[in-house]
């Protein structure tokens, strides 16, 4: 094991550094992971560029990264289900206490939850990282480290679909990639039946009409992923009466929306906050081959080039930028 723990640390707005930190020791219920693949999320870039997301403010140096997988190199004294050498995916949100949200199976809503790379909690964009063993999930042999890291964003989709009650036969509109042709092309490649390019100046009701004309009917469910006010408005207008709009994207605290339109048509508006209880399902999806996330990784950088990787993400040059943390294994 290396003696230094190269880490990507955000000190303050715009101040991103590579630092060597000590290799941590796992507690009784933790494992020490040699990190392998960590994806860069939009939230990581947002903290770098703005120093905060809503009420979460970077007040002290924080290690970034929460889309992660790695290999177990040491286990805590109380850990029974994992052993050295296991390849695992990391669920970044760990409840700190047995509160009512935990008891109800909605631990993602616990106000005291630990969450990687959310101030003041450090993330796992580093060589070595300790995490609760109960929130590390063994990867089948046919699931790569990169797929393991992509379980985190996949989990956002799974949780959103659960919140929306998506089922066989549901017609679903997804808003959020509209202004980026390469992202629309990727959506088409990964299973979308139709794609609709939004033109600047399109009004929400006009967009809703275009969606209905394209599908031949209004969608049962709309999943809004941008957080942009006009997109939320279009989502509500587009959804059929009795349907569901799920808000995944986070935008301004206040938004003007056609609430009465939704109310009189009994369109439910539901929020989403991260995810819970999704890793086992996601692993099964990937292992079965029915869900393919591999094409999402468009750029790879060694950990030493983290700043360049973040700049690539900021410029929107790829879909998913992946950092490779193990010097001796840069494979997917």
Could you explain how this protein is built, in words?
The chain is an alpha+beta fold. The chain has two domains: 4-150 and 293-324, Medium-chain alcohol dehydrogenases, catalytic domain (Quinone Oxidoreductase, Chain A, domain 1), CATH 3.90.180; 158-271, Rossmann fold, CATH 3.40.50.720. It is built from ten helices and 18 strands. It has helices at residues 42-50, 100-103, 145-149, 151-164, 181-189, 204-215, 229-238, 259-264, 279-288, 306-314, and strands at 4-12, 15-22, 30-39, 52-53, 56-57, 62-63, 67-75, 87-90, 93-94, 114-115, 128-132, 136-138, 172-175, 221-224, 244-247, 268-271, 297-302, 320-324. Strands 3, 7, 8, 11, 12, 17 and 18 form a seven-stranded mixed sheet that branches. Strands 13-14-15-16 form a four-stranded parallel sheet, with helices on both faces. It has a three-stranded antiparallel sheet with strand order 2-1-6, with no helix packed on it. Strand 17, helix 10 and strand 18 form a beta-alpha-beta unit. Helix 6 (204-215) packs across helix 7. The longest helix is centred in the middle third of the chain and has 14 residues, at 151-164. The protein is globular and about 60 Å long. The two termini are 21 Å apart. The mean pLDDT is 96.
């Amino acid at each position: 094991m290396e003696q230094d723990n190269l880490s990507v640390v955000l000190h303050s707005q715009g101040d991103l550094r590579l630092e060597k930190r000590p290799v941590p020791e796992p507690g009784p219920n933790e494992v020490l992971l040699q990190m392998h693949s960590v994806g860069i999320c939009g939230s990581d870039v947002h903290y770098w560029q703005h120093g905060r997301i809503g009420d979460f403010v970077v007040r002290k140096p924080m290690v970034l990264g929460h889309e992660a997988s790695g290999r177990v190199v040491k286990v805590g004294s109380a850990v029974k289900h994992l052993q050295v050498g296991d390849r695992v995916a990391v669920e970044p949100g760990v409840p700190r206490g047995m509160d009512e949200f935990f008891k109800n199976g909605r631990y993602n809503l616990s106000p005291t939850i630990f969450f990687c790379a959310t101030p003041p909690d450090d993330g796992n964009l580093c060589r070595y990282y300790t995490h609760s063993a109960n929130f590390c999930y063994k990867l089948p042999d046919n699931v790569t480290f990169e797929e393991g890291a992509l379980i985190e964003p996949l989990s956002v989709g799974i949780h959103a679909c659960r919140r929306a009650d998506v089922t066989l036969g549901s017609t679903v509109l997804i808003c959020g990639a509209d202004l980026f042709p390469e992202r629309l092309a990727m959506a088409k490649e990964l299973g979308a039946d139709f794609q609709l390019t939004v033109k600047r100046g399109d009004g929400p009701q006009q967009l809703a009409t275009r969606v209905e004309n394209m599908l031949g009917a209004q969608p049962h469910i709309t999943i809004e992923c941008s957080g942009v006010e006009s997109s939320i408005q279009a989502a509500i207008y587009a959804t059929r009466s009795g349907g569901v709009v799920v808000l995944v994207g986070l935008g301004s605290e206040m938004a003007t929306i056609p609430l009465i339109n939704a109310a009189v048509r009994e369109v439910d508006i539901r929020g989403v906050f991260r995810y819970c209880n999704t890793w086992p399902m996601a692993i099964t999806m990937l292992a079965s081959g029915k869900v393919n996330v591999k094409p999402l990784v468009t750029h790879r950088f060694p950990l030493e080039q983290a700043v360049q990787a973040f700049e690539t993400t900021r410029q929107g040059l790829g879909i998913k930028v992946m950092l490779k943390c193990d010097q001796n294994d840069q494979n997917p």
